[in-house]
Amino acid sequence: xxIRKYLxxxxxxxxxxxxxxxxxQAPVSLDLQPDGKNPASPxxxxxxxxxxTITNTGTSPIEGLVAWISLVEIDPGNEQPVDLEDWSAHKAxxxxxxxxxxxxxxxxxxxxxxxxxxxxxxxxxxxxxRQVYTSPTVQFHIRQKPVLQAGRVLxxxxxxxxLIVGLMVFNKAKQRHKRVFSTHGQVREG
Amino acid sequence: xxxxxxxxxSIEGKEILKGIDLHLVPGDTYGLLGPxxxxxxxxxxxxxxxxxxxxxxxxxxxGDPAQHALSIRRSVGVMPEKAGFYDWMTAPDYLKWYGRLYxxxxxxxxxAKMLEKVGLGAVAHRPIGTYSRGMKQRLAVAxxxxxxxxxxxxxxxxxxxxxxxxxxxxxxxxxFAADGNAGVLLCTHLLDxxxxxxxxxxxxxxxxxxxxxxxxxxxxxxxSGQRYRLRLETAPDTTNLPAGVxxxxxxxxxxxxxxxxxxxxxxSALWPELWRRGWKILxxxxxxxxxxxxxxxxxxxxxxxxREAA
Amino acid sequence: MMNTIWTIVHKESAQMLRSQRGLLWLLAFSGLLSAFSLLLxxxxxxxxxxxxxxxxxxxxxxxxxxxxxSAILGSDAYAGExxxxxxxxxxxxxVAPSALLAGKAMGLLAAWGVMFAVATPYLWAVGASxxxxxxxxxxxxxxxxxxxxxxxxxxxxxxARTGSVxxxxxxxxxxxxxxxxxxxxxxxxxxxxxxxxLDAVNPFAGALNTFDSVIIxxxxxxxxxxxxxxxxxxxxxxxxxxxxxAARPDFx
Lengths: 190, 310, 252
Known about the structure:
Chain A has 190 residues and is α+β, with helices and mostly antiparallel strands. Chain A has helices at 2-24, 150-189; strands at residues 28-34, 47-56, 62-73, 80-81, 92-98, 103-111, 116-125, 133-134, 138-142.
């Protein structure tokens, strides 16, 4: 019984070691760092930049590499992936090739659209592989800023329609004045 | 000024004009007559170069409208049948604006005079949208006259006008035509307008010119005579009629007679003759003018022919 | 020729600024922008939207309203004049068809110019503290003008051909709604194959994508050339259609 137990332990250990070895032999390593110039306490509207480094740690070249950035909102009760449509025009790197030992350093600019807590991550896959490798995440907080100033919007929103109404009244009055003037003129002439 | 020979024109495969002839020389006031759908307006549009014609020949002020439409239109004042305006404008603003399309800039005084002439001086300050139909007709005449054209084309110019308005428009047209070098083409249903204004007419029906010439000549050639209705005290002896008089019917107390132009010349000579033959005439009414007879005898024939053929 | 064109432009512009109908349209347009602006400041969620995002949305709204006005004015240009009986007097005057079309088109441009002028303070109010307001105004003029004029020419082509305001307006507005679907439905549609194909040939989407690109992403002019070409081709095709129809308009 004891022998069987040792044998099982040995098999499991062997399998685990193999798995760890395979894992250690992952052909891609990924790193993600915020740019040094990023504001320490970013506010809506600020720009942030992240740098990813993708290295081919395997022995064969990687063809058709695809790397993309993802953003997740992690505000309590509001956890959700973010559509990067308005945040960044640079959302992916596609079709790159990396020889063994080669690295690809990419910058990921981002404009902060909405306040809250976020986590950013870069993922990589390639044409032939079935694995997706992800970078460490970078977490940051965006301070909210009311961007629309009521003091500027209200006068315009009320003023322009009033101006047009004023123009309509002016036109009417001008026509009436012209009519009265013309009638008086005719009376005098008559 | 206008020479149209055997004009044929089709719209969307349907032949609208099948042979139009029209000749207008300077000094003419030409009445273009015909029932609705006869092709009068289409003829006008063709001679302004607005509708492309198939065959025949058109010359307006010496040019072919297919090639020189703009230069022709520059010398032609037109009053189309549907007299539309920009309702928010006043009449003086509108006339000045319209004149500029002819490279002609009428002064305030020119415009005021024109509006006085057409009887709109008192309402000139009002937006056109407030005008009645008759006022718009007058303004349409003013619009046609504003660019001081050599040739005036008017489509139903007195439609919707009261007798006074009609008379004013007649006077304007007479004044315009009095120049002797200008020409007027008048499309109308009102034979009274033609009678008063025109020296020449053309009758078109079903896309063809049925008759064209000077009114005096055409009436002189007319052989069918004039029709009268007579109210008589007693029934007449219809077997004993003077030469040139034909019974045309009997309805209630009225007897219709058709009187040939000859041998009596003037119908006034006929009535004593009928009286002598026992016709106790109480009242005489002319049923239609000679022009109307002429018009009636040259329109609707194709239709009748088609009906018979069917 | 130029004199005739200016005479027509004068009437068309005056109709926009002096007639109650034209001013009512402007009032409705400013009311729409005011309602949009007030919604942005009064709604907590919307008030936190980025300035550039708001400017982008407002630029799209101005473009849509401009194209709609253009469809209305273009449909009215020939068929409306015909229905009111004012087309025949115009055609009977010594006005070349091309001059009439040019005058109408320039009148439409003047109306778009007035709308642009009305929209500018709103764009300033919502976008002054953000980025790319100047770019937004520049590209709204650069891309908006051919798009708006194109819809105007298309409406004029249909108006002159059919002689019916209703037929022309329905056709142009239907096409406009189809073209504006990216604005109405959002980016979801644009991700699909149909959406991408539509984007490639859709001048309205081309202009919106440029607004997105320059206002939100701060992309340079060089990135907009393909889309600029698209809106210019659109304008050219609509102009050809309008010239062909306007040469022989349905006036009877």
